[in-house]
Amino acid sequence: MRLERRSHVPLHLAFLAPVSAVLVALFLAAGLIAAAGVSPLTAYTELVRGAFGSRLALSEMLTRATPLIFTGLAAAVAFRARLWNIGAEGQFFMGALMTAWVGHSLSLPGPLGMIVLMLIGMAAGAALLAGPAFMRLRFGVDEVVTTLLLNFIVLLFVGLMIEGPLRDPLAFGWPSSVPVDGAYRLPDLIPRTRLHCGFLVALGAAGAVWLVFARTVFGMESRATGLSGSAARFAGISLPGTLMRVALFSGALAGLAGSVEVLGVTAGVTTTMSPGFGYAGIVVAMLAALHPVGVVGSAIFVATIFVGADAMSRATGVPSFIADVIVALCLLTMLVALLFTTHRVRR
Amino acid sequence: MTHPVLEMHQITKRFGSFTAIDDVTLTLGQGEILALLGENGAGKTTLMNILFGHYAAEAGRVRVFGQDLPSGRPRAAIEAGVGMVHQHFALAGNLTVLDNVMLGSESLWRARTARGAARQKLLKIADRFGLPVDPEAKVNRLSVGERQRVEILKALYRDARVLILDEPTAVLARPEAQRLFETLREMATEGLSLIFISHKLPEVMAASDRVAVLRSGQMIAERKTAETSPGELAELMVGRKVTRPVRQDHPIGAPVLIARNLSREDDGETQLQDVSFTVNEGEILGIVGVSGNGQATLSRLLSGLAAPTSGTVMLSGTDIRMLGPRGLIAARAGRVPEDRLTEGVVADLAIWENAILERIRTPAFSRHGFVRRAAARDYADELITRFDIRGATPETRTGQLSGGNMQKLILGRCLSIGPKFILANQPTRGLDEGAIAAVHETLLEARSQGAAILLISEELDEAVALSDHIQAIVKGRLSLPVASAEANAQRLGLMMAGIWEGGDHAA
Q1: How far apart are CA A99 and CA A116, in angstroms?
Q2: What is the pTM assigned to this prediction?
Q3: Best exposed site among A172, A231, B144, B424 by fewest CB in 10 Å?
Q4: How many structural domains does chain A have?
């Protein structure tokens, strides 16, 4: 048995791949749920109900999907150009911290302030990825290592700031940063829920990323760079220039995730505000096969698992860690599924 | 013919509705060298994959030394004594020759390796077949020719008595190829039977006893090599009369590209030394030489990928040293890279995207940072029609094109800028006869429209047929130009060996 590269990937396979990957992952996780003494069918029913069963459940799920769309886009943008940005988690926190800090004492009219604060979050995320990107381009330092390790440095830095200079005196001793001014909080999308207008910003970002990739010179050059660096260089595309711009773009999206989460949900920064949005963004991007519009769908799926697993855990007693297992399994099965979309099995 | 050692009888293989091999019968005699000739895609490799059990044939049987081989069992052929030397070597560079030869032929469950015995056996085989080798040399220190020798030894070590070589000369320089043919002859005299797969006529004529011609999966003809001619074989292979176009003399114009005393060092090593040449309007200047003598560096300089350490290059009076790829294109210099797949195109992009990639930032193909997709598609359509790129629409994934059609795309892209200068580095490497003729035709047409063309080639026939003047490149230095009318194989051979009169071509 051998694998043979397909000359052409049929469209139906591109859709079939994530669906079958998810089904296989759910099937495998069902084994673990059964081992915990619960019928997988009951558990999954509770999971879906927990994410879609009520107005509140649905709005919670979409609230959770919002940062995942941003970090998924950040990963998709970088991976398309073969820049391995594993640091979205750090960029998320950097964007969140800078937004809260500046937003605490900013004095601008509300809507303008929101835009400025989001731009600050984007700049913070972009700046954080610029360093590793520069080291990769100048000295060949592997960005997988640098971006991954920066995540921990940033998290410790955030801890330092919210215990120290940015500590919120009104938080009753909880380690939290000062909150952004109430004037800059993103308005609710559905009244009396946590779902905020940041979700619309995320959808807009997905559309914008699609437009950039499909229609612009920069998008085509970064795709060419990712597919074949040597051919791109022969065609006169500057590899360092393209990769640096891709890095700024990707970092900005991850920083925006943190910024929007602060503006829309948490107001202040805590070290526990992200249940791994940055890392989950990698899964989101892979499940979408790096397609920006697909990212929206896969972010909703991953958010469903996260939010639904909590409800399932309450109803059935299966530990909510199963969500992490399912998401991790999805990444693995998707990698296998992608192999079968680009290759066929020959005997 | 003596009793056949290998028989493939009425083999048919289909992939879906496509018949790749159609009722092919092939026999190989003891001590015979059979050339399997055919264009790319004729089914040569598929046929050999059936022999090795990688594919199961729909019909037909394979007999080796009178024994039927079960179909679909890769080890069966090897155990029966058939060995294969692939076009792309499967050697571990960080291991020694002996390790590579032993790899995979030992039982997994033995605690110790029998290196001593293996070494003896290897040296004995090497001696018997005239394949000298140092068993303890690291493979990544060997030349390409030596690596191929290791591949052959690997097959012989596994007691192969029938040896199949897939395009063995594709990676070899001419003297190495010559040596390979001598070795093959010696091996045949020692009683081995050989099949070599090729689409190059001169080597088939030089090295085989018998030729089997495959076309579109069918066995078209078999000839004794002594009783056929390259012309007849070419016609059988392509299915129609293919003649490479011939250069007509015409007046040559003013200098277009003038390079003076170009040198280039990379990591302290001199790649080009004091190279000077001039290409005139309507002239093709051929640079011949064994690969690895500085052609790649020269090509990088003229493609805008690198700047010379010293020296000047002027294109119609403009200094082009620092222009970069896009600056060169703006200065109307076209470039055909050595490797279509790694440099010429991005295989996973559509044809229209590759067509405009070099010029994507020009107003013709983008505005305000957005790609003008309609204009790009129209342009790609025009290239497809004008340069006869077969099996293509603007949306086709470029990697789906055959080598020849991909080269037509690259050449078309080059010519559509109305180039004053064209760099063509190995423009016909790996192409079949029909595509070679098309590429030559295109280059000669560009020449008659007044383009100055620098042709870098390892194929002497090609260089002589196309070029007005020829210079040889040896160890980064360039010989004086000779008119190709005065160039014969002997003189060019001497030039390529670094022996020329009057020293370097100095300004």
Answers
A1: 9
A2: 0.81
A3: A172
A4: 1
